[in-house]
């Protein structure tokens, strides 16, 4: 089986799982679900996989760019869950990674996206897309926190309860990390599949 067909199968599975999980989140929390980086990144993953499936026989640059973007966003989600959220919840991996929608949104889809992009998909050079979207998300949520429209939803966004320096350090860490992750995914893709893919 060709790499492209394997990528097609994985993206089909991602699409099905995302429809189940995102659909469940929207039905349960309605538009509040969009406050979460997790849900936003998984929605982008849903659409990137849908476009990959629709344009499977074509080699569209926009699809490659969206697949790198989605994979980078989901990798950020996966790493934030493991390194920040799980420790904050007394290392309750079962709750945050293997329960209900979290199993799909925090664990399965990020892993499937990474596997598909790194091993079976063509590379994109748009490594700046992930940090740009992360900056946009951060600005919107920080403003909503300042005006007390939301609380968080992540601890590093609670600018009203932490110093400006702490907020800036979190911002540098998350945004810089998103750029590093996107660059790393792109680098690994090229190393595994060759620069001319």
Segments where pLDDT lies below 50 for 5+ residues? none
- By secondary-structure content and strand pairing, the structural class works out as mainly alpha
Overall residue-averaged pLDDT value: 94
Query: Percent of residues in helical segments?
Result: over 70%
Count of helix runs: 7
Q: Looking at the structure, what is the overall shape?
A: globular
Write the layout of secondary structure elements.
Layout: H1 3-29, H2 37-54, H3 61-88, H4 93-98, H5 100-120, H6 129-146, H7 164-193
Question: What's this entry about, in short?
Answer:
The protein is an all-alpha fold and 197 residues long. The protein has helices at 3-29, 37-54, 61-88, 93-98, 100-120, 129-146, 164-193. The longest helix has 30 residues, at 164-193.
């Amino acid at each position: 089986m060709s790499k492209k067909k394997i990528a097609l199968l994985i993206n089909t599975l991602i699409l099905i799982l995302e429809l189940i999980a995102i659909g469940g989140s929207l039905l349960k929390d309605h538009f509040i679900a969009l406050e979460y980086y997790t849900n936003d990144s998984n929605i982008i993953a849903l659409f990137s996989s849908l476009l990959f499936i629709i344009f499977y026989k074509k080699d569209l640059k926009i699809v490659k760019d969206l697949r790198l973007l989605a994979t980078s966003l989901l990798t950020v989600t996966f790493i934030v869950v493991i390194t920040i959220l799980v420790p904050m919840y007394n290392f309750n991996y079962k709750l945050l990674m293997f329960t209900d929608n979290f199993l799909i949104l925090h664990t399965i889809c990020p892993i499937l996206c990474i596997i598909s992009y790194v091993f079976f998909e063509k590379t994109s050079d748009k490594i700046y897309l992930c940090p740009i979207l992360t900056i946009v998300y951060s600005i919107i949520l920080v403003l909503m926190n300042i005006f007390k429209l939301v609380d968080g939803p992540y601890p590093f966004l609670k600018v009203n309860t932490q110093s400006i320096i702490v907020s800036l350090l979190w911002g540098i860490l998350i945004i810089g990390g998103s750029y590093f992750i996107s660059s790393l995914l792109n680098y690994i893709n090229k190393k595994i599949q060759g620069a001319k893919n």
